[in-house]
Design brief:
Blueprint: E1 2-8, H1 13-22, E2 29-35, E3 42-46, E4 49-53, E5 56-65, H2 70-81, E6 89-95
Antiparallel strand pairs: 1-5, 1-6, 2-5, 3-4
């Protein structure tokens, strides 16, 4: 079992969700986050004053998957989230040692 975490641009979320649904992903967790990488933020002008926006809005998407779906999920996220511009985001893959569904007590792949 794996946890796939992707940090993407907010306007790409619907496309990524649809792409994951097409490969059979049934659930995900989405969080609005702020951050920066090589993009390093930008400056904006507000009422004549220039100020730096260091942290840019992003979406953090987390999906717990069986190991056989991981490569498909990575490809689906990559294809749906990529714009070809700086700041497209990143995908991280973690091992999951144990998963437990609280309602039923199911464990492992059954809990996904």
């Amino acid at each position: 079992m794996k946890l796939v975490t992707a940090v993407i641009k907010p306007f790409r979320l619907d496309d990524v969700r649809d792409a994951l649904a097409q490969i059979g992903v049934k659930g995900m967790t989405v969080t609005e986050v702020k951050g920066f990488g090589r993009q390093k933020g930008h400056t904006e002008l507000y009422r004549g004053a220039e100020y730096a926006v260091d942290f840019l809005p992003k979406i953090k998407l987390e999906v717990a998957l069986s190991s056989d779906l991981v490569d498909q999920a990575i490809e689906a996220i990559s294809n749906a989230a990529q714009t070809g511009k700086i700041g497209d985001g990143k995908i991280f893959v973690y091992n999951l040692d144990q998963v437990i569904r609280l309602r039923t007590g199911e464990t492992g792949n059954d809990a996904l």
